[in-house]
Amino acid sequence: MMEEKQTIALKEWAIAVKALEAGEQIVIMRKGGIIEETRDFRLESNAFYLYPTYEHQKNELLKSAYQTNLDEILETWDNQASFIKVTSYAEVTADLEVNDQEQLNLLFPYHIWTEHFAEERLKWKRDKPLHVLLLRVYRLSKPLILPILPEYNGCKSWIRLLTELPLDVSMAPVLADDVFATQVEQIKRLCTNKRR
Fold it and tell me: Which pTM does this prediction carry?
């Protein structure tokens, strides 16, 4: 684990952050935000806070088991709030590129999204690969309560946290080492066994 925490954060759906923090998945998928500087996804840091977002989340994009969780999340979110709670930190252990539907289908058991949503992510900007990031997620022992600043708004993946953060942020991994290593190995094998 890094001794000094990065002040960068990755914006991700609140429902996905909840699944990551519960150890229900270690995967996120990216092609880029609408207003990314290059309109393509770039891994700007190998370690970052997970910044939950509430826009664009829809039940029909989630497997049925997670739709109730989303309803609960949306019921408790105040879209007029001036602060947000950040409760986790992540380190990238692999950045895998998926280029075809067969590979993507093999990953279906490892994430919360429907086949249709994952397929649409792959099809968008077809000439670019879908980045499948494998994350080692850590739960913060004490949440960071951060002001929601205008600089954080918009459809972009990365934000720099402009608030001074505590120096003594303690955290613990959400999955045991052996459980995490097994999942990483399984997913890597699926992503690298391409059709011949």
Answer: 0.83
